[in-house]
Amino acid sequence: MTALQAITFDLDDTLWDNHGVMLRTEEGHYAWLLEALGMWRATRQEAPLALGYEAGLQDYLARRQQFAKDVPERRGDFTWLRLRALEAQLEAEGLPRSAAILWAAAAMNEFHRLRVQVTPHPEAAGLLAALGERYQLAAITNGNIHLKRQPLAAYFPVAIAAGELLAPKPDHTPFLTALAKMDVAPECAMHVGDSWAEDILPAQELGMLAVWISNDSEQALPPRVHRIAHIKELPGVLERLNG
Asked: Organism's domain of life (predicted)?
C-alpha cells in the first residue's frame, strides 16, 4: 500500500454533533435580529416591523432557497445566501437599502458567534494532536462555520470552506485544493466524513482512502473505503492499514 501522508476531515457530524448547534444558531440569530431591530426602530420613534418570528423564519428560508436556484454557482455559499436573503427581506419590510445591508451583516455576525459554539467529541482533540505528529491534516467543510474560530482550528494548518470556492462537496475541487496545499497525491491521502455522497464517493473517485462515519451496516463498501461508528475508532483503522 502507498504510504499515507495526509488525512482530511469533514467537520460537522464528524468531529462534533451539529444538529443542536444549527438549531440554536438558526433560531438565535434571527430572534436577535428582530429584537435588536425593534429596539433600534423604537429609539427612532418608528413603527415596529410587521414581520413576526415564525413567518419571518419561513420567509427567510424561502428566500435563501430561491437565491440558490437563481444563482446556482452560489448554492453552497451559505453565508452569501443568508446575507442576500436577509437584505431582501428587510428591504421588503421597508428598510432603506443601506440599513438592510447593515442589519443583515449584524445578524450574520451573531450567526457566526453562535455557529462556532460547537462541542467536539471528547476524543477529537487528543486524536488530532496525535495524528498531526505523523500526518498532514486538513479540514474540508461545506458548512459556513468560521474555520479559524472553530475549536479545533489549531490542528488544521489547511482548512477549506468549499462554499467559498463555489464548489461544494461532492465537487472534487475542495479535495484537490486541500491536497495541492499539502503537496500530497490523492493516493497518499485519506478523507474522513459522515456523508456517503459528499465525503466518501468523491474521495474514492479521486483515489483517496476514505473512512465513513456511519451506523449503516447495509451499505456495501468498495475497495479503500472503511466504516466506523465514531471518530474514536479511526486509530484502529490506521493500525490495520499500517498492519
From this structure: Bacteria
Q: Which of 116, 147, 181 is the last residue of a domain?
A: 116
Helix residue ranges, H only, the chain: 19-43, 53-70, 78-92, 97-115, 124-132, 173-182, 201-206, 234-242
* Residue 31 to residue 26: CA distance in whole angstroms: 9
| pLDDT tens string 189-229 | 999 999 999 999 999 999 999 999 999 988 889 999 999 99
Three-class SS of residue 9? strand
Do residues 76 and 137 share a domain? no
* Helix, strand or coil, per DSSP, at residue 137: strand
pLDDT, tens only, 148-165: 999 999 999 999 999 889
Give the Cα-Cα-Cα angle 139, 142, 148 (nearest 5 degrees).
45
User: What is d(CA 5, CA 53) in angstroms, rounded to the nearest whole number?
Assistant: 49
Q: Nearest 5 degrees, angle CA 97-CA 101-CA 105?
A: 170
Judge whether 232 and 123 are in contact, CB under 8 Å.
yes
Domain boundary residue, one of 93, 116, 139: 116
Beta bridge partners of 160: 140
Question: 69 and 174 in one domain?
Answer: no
> Position of cell 437563481?
70
CA 127 from chain centre, in angstroms, equals 20
* Domain around 47: 19-116
* pTM, to two decimals: 0.90
Residue with cell 429596539: 39
CA distance 217 to 231: 16
